Amino acid sequence: MRDVLDELAAVGRAMGSAHLPAGDAYTMELRRVYRAELDDVWSALTDVERLARWMGPVTGDLRAGGSFEVAGAEHGDILRCEPPHLLRVSWMFGPEADAWPGTSEVEIRLAVDGPGRTWLELVHAASVVEPMFPTYGPGAGGVGWDLHLRGLAILLHHGESPDHSDFRASELGRAYVRGSAAAWGEAHLAAGGDPSEVAAAVRATTAFYLS
Questions:
Q1: Would you list the DSSP string of 59-114?
Q2: Per-residue pLDDT at 1 exceeds 70
Q3: Is the per-residue pLDDT at 4 higher than 80?
Q4: How many CA atoms lie within 13 A of 97 on its CB side?
Q5: Which residues pair with 28 in a beta bridge?
Q6: pTM of the prediction?
């Protein structure tokens, strides 16, 4: 349980606002430090073989202007790529999402945070009109990103590939999901969310990820 609590505490979370090509958006913002060199973290984010070890199989033309697909689900275009500091992509889920271009983008920024340490900021901006937000709040995507960043930590810190399925089915994994959903509820409240709506969103998010 200590490891689960430490992983949850390692991530700073916030909810903000942004403007996408399709209009106004809300943001899920995650920040943490990895015990790894900057180039090593960048490689884990952009090398196909290493991406597969912590996120899932990735295919496509992985360069600025290219496109990608993650494990037959998330997909998008590479909008900016400035090694080893900045990566921005469109981030769509499911074939129906392609009917709504410009509604979801992910930007990752890296910086040196001292010897052998790299600071990572991930900002996922999603259109305010996307259908999941009223039910799940920022935890809809936020819990998923927490799970992915935990997997990245396992790869960078231990050289191992996480088993996401086994972890989520375990008691520790279920505790992690509950803690992540609650943390995103706190970020939602801090951004001005209505307490009753936030509480309902946390319950819905927890049930969705644990189902």
A1: EE--STT-EEEETTTEEEEEEEEETTTEEEEE-EESGGGGGSTTSEEEEEEEEE-S
A2: no
A3: no
A4: 18
A5: 15, 124
A6: 0.95
Among candidates 2, 7, 1, which has minimal Cα distance to 158?
7
The tens digit of pLDDT for each residue in 146-197 reads 999 999 999 999 999 998 889 989 999 999 999 999 999 999 999 999 999 9
DSSP letter at 126 equals E
Give dist(CA 60, CA 159) in Å, integer: 25
Q: Is 178 helix (H, G, I), strand (E, B) or coil?
A: helix
pLDDT in tens, 70-100: 987 899 999 999 999 999 999 998 777 777 7
Domains and CATH numbers, the chain: 2-210 (3.30.530.20)
Peptide bond into 84 cis (omega under 30): yes
**Tokens 């969310």, residue?**
193
Rounded CA-CA distance 175/173 in Å is: 5
Closest CA to 106 of 75, 152, 137: 75
pLDDT of 2 higher than 70: no
Distance CA 27, CA 140 (A): 11
